[in-house]
């Protein structure tokens, strides 16, 4: 029989940590968008446009990273639920087999 050990507490903690990182990225995006808006209102010229493009690219990459982190978070949460359900069913089978 194979020995499989799952630390569901660590999985839940990982999911929470990822959620916190998603929130931090979202806050950072909001602050940068606010700063970018203020800069574009007061700064004109080619360098302003170049800087705005850099911030726009960063915004796109940050959004993609948030999507990836959200997918990991959902996978961890689903895996934790699945592992707990398998463990519960296995325990019931063992109890009912005697």
Tell me about this structure.
The protein is mainly alpha-helical and 98 residues long. The protein has a domain at 48-78. It contains two helices and no strands. The model has no long low-confidence stretch (mean pLDDT 91). This is WXG100 family type VII secretion target. Pfam families: WXG100. It comes from [Eubacterium] siraeum DSM 15702.
Share of helical residues:
over 70%
Which parts are unreliable, with pLDDT below 50 for 5 consecutive residues or more? none
Report the β-strand fraction as a percent range: under 5%
Largest sheet: none
Strand tally: 0
Please work out how many helical segments DSSP would assign. Answer: 2
Beginning-to-end CA distance, first to last residue: 19 Å
The H/E string reads HH
Task: Give the oligomer, counting copies of the same chain as homo and different chains as hetero.
Answer: single chain
Any idea what the shape is? rod-shaped
Protein name: WXG100 family type VII secretion target
Organism: [Eubacterium] siraeum DSM 15702
InterPro entries: ESAT-6-like_sf, T7SS_ESAT-6-like
Pfam families: WXG100
């Amino acid at each position: 029989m194979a020995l499989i050990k799952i630390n569901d507490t660590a999985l839940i903690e990982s999911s929470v940590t990822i959620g916190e990182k998603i929130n931090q990225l979202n806050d950072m995006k909001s602050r940068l968008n606010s700063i970018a808006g203020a800069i574009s209102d007061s700064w004109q010229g080619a360098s302003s446009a170049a800087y705005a493009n850099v911030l726009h690219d960063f915004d796109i990459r940050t959004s993609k990273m948030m999507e990836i982190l959200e997918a990991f978070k959902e996978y961890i949460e689903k895996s934790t639920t699945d592992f707990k359900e398998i463990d519960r069913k296995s325990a019931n089978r063992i109890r009912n087999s005697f």
